[in-house]
Amino acid sequence: MLSVVVPVHNEQDNVAPLIEEIVAALRGVTPFEMVYVDDCSGDATPARLRDLLPVHPELRVLRHLQQGGQSTAVRNGVKAARGRWIATLDGDGQNDPADIPTLLAARDAGDPATKLYAGWRVHRKDSGSKRWASKIANAIRARLLRDATPDTGCGIKLFEREAFLDLPYFDHMHRYLPALMQRAGWKTVSVPVNHRARGSGVSNYTNLHRALVGIADLRGVAWLIRRARRPVVEELQR
User: Is 146 or 167 the better-scoring residue by pLDDT?
Assistant: First the structure.
């Protein structure tokens, strides 16, 4: 089974259309479930999700009673997931669920040592300032972490559940999954995917917010990479 984990915060007008797209992309293609994690929304997002539960048997809904952030929502969704492999999508509708089968095909044809297939937004539909901020951040991150990943901020990813849960957890860790997977000894692959303009609502992040938290996070991840140790382990036989 594939588990599609979608974190949401104040996305009342985006939940129903995105769920319909996920169902259209996966029903009849692979067994799947959708695990929506509402991060203490202040709008009608929880009510919309509750109304959709009887409509879509694949849908499950978790809710944070206090806001925990996107990384916490993703992690809690993955912990609750029943599938061996996890696909993630941002809840704003900018990721295209039709790309999930593309990621699955890449996995099926890939190296078993590859545990993360990361979406790569080749043609982004964000504002000019957001694209430039992302380009600068990616360049700095690539120089410091050397993760050979052109776009770590893309929300659509496919990864093995067990490998993800073995990673060190911290706030904003979802932005550094390729580097963290590589630190753990796994391979990662970037796959070109579609990107769309936000259909409704406003972003929960600003460029300044991303920059301020990014500086501290980069230093922390770089420290984790420097301190990593992966000795080969063998068990003695009787």
Answer: 167
Q: How far apart are CA 166 and CA 178, in angstroms?
A: 14
Q: Closest Cα to residue 71, out of 174, 179, 175?
A: 174
Position 209: which residue type?
H
Burial class (CB in 10 A: 0-12, 13-18, 19+), 152: buried
Locate tokens 């995105």: which residue? 18
Please list, residue by residue across 50-85, b when 16 or more beta carbons sit within 10 angstroms of its beta carbon and e when fewer do: eebeeebebbbbbbbeeebbbbbbbbbbbeebebeb
CB distance 186 to 116 below 8 Å: yes
Q: Are 135 and 153 in contact (CB under 8 A)?
A: no
The residues, any chain, with a CB within 8 Å of residue 146's CB and separated by 6 or more, are none
CA 190 to centroid of chain Cα atoms: 13
d(CA 60, CA 159): 20
Spell out the domain ranges in the chain.
2-226
Q: Which residues pair with 234 in a beta bridge?
A: none
| Residue 60, CA atoms < 13 Å, CB-side half-sphere | 16
In the chain, helix, strand, coil percent, each to 5?
A: 40, 20, 40
DSSP helix/strand/coil, 137? helix
> Hey, what CATH topology would domain 2-226 get?
Spore Coat Polysaccharide Biosynthesis Protein SpsA; Chain A (3.90.550)
**Could you read off the pLDDT of 168-222 as tens digits, one per residue?**
999 999 999 999 999 999 999 999 999 998 777 666 555 445 555 577 788 889 8
